[in-house]
Amino acid sequence: LNGLALSLTDGSPDNNLTQAFHYFNKSAAGGNADGLYNSALLLKDGRGIARDEATAVAYMRRAVHADHQAARIALGTMMIEGRGTAPDCHEGTLLLKAAAERGRWGILLRDGLEAYMRGDISAAILSYKAASELGFEVAQSNTAWLLQNLCPSARCDVSRAQALDEALRFLELAAANGNSDAQRRLADALWFGEGEAADGELALLHYESAAASGDVQSSFNVAWALVVGPSLHLAYDYSWETLGLQHAVQSVQMFAGGLFGDDPATSTSNSGGNGGWA
Fold first, then answer.
1. 153 strand-pairing partners
2. Which of 6, 9, 172, 271 has its CA 20 to 30 A from that of 147?
3. What's the pLDDT score for residue 276?
4. Residue 221 and residue 172: Cα distance in Å, rounded?
């Protein structure tokens, strides 16, 4: 049905968009992703059928659910422009980002994975770096992980100092792309001074951001950072009232009690304090 409808939209004299919509819509009713997308295009622009942007958005959503790439791009654009729905730049951008990551340049991710699987770490890093510069969040995170964990080695001819410095940059890119795991790993690097001088205040900001995105380890790390910083009361306030994670405070209380004795808020000791961090 979708193919029959397409034959009525090829620019020839006997084209009939009204009839084309009829066939596209029947195809869409059967769950065909192309039929949903093509029906939505005609509805969006009012060609062959009365303009109905709200229904076009609904059709586009169903096509996206079926992993239709062109529908993902069209729906993202409509979301940003507020056509058929309230403007939503965040969701629209996520749709366009997802579409970009499914483009033919995504082969760089596959090349990186294949190189890693065969043990060629240098080649994997090279492929992931190329994908990272194109904005691929997973490539940025993977590049940082390889640099942090497998360099230097017989399979990666990069000094430790250079590896940590580069890893920090790629963690920053992935964190800026909304990757909460990268946000936490970036905070870890800043807390322990990996790649540059330790910066506890900046590390805490990144932990807070990751915690706000639902990263439980980061919520614990926020509480712990505040325990060894100003006072235990700040850890209670942040973890319970701001994050709503009572167990984070309880964990910190027990952990700090074991390290500092009966009065963790007034102790200055930090022996063994890195043991529970991811």
1. 156
2. 271
3. 33
4. 19
Q: Which residue has the higher pLDDT, 106 or 271?
A: 106
Whether the CB-CB separation of 2 and 31 falls below 8 Å is answered with no
Which DSSP string corresponds to 98-150?
A: HHHHTSGGGHHHHHHHHHHHTT-HHHHHHHHHHHHHTT-HHHHHHHHHHHHHH
What are the CA-CA distances from residue 211 to residues 111, 192, 200 (Å)? 32, 19, 16
Q: Distances in Å between the alpha carbon of 25 and those of 4, 12, 40, 182?
A: 12, 21, 9, 44
pLDDT at 14 exceeding the cut of 90? no
Among 117-126, 169-178, 183-192, 228-237, where is mean pLDDT lowest?
Answer: 228-237
**Side chain identity at residue 32, one-letter code:** N
Contact yes or no for 32/24 (Cβ under 8 A): no
The predicted structure's pLDDT at residue 188:
92
- What is 22-63 written as a DSSP string? HHHHHHHHTT-HHHHHHHHHHHHHTSSS---HHHHHHHHHHH
For residue 208, the one-letter residue type is: E
pLDDT at 255 over 90: no
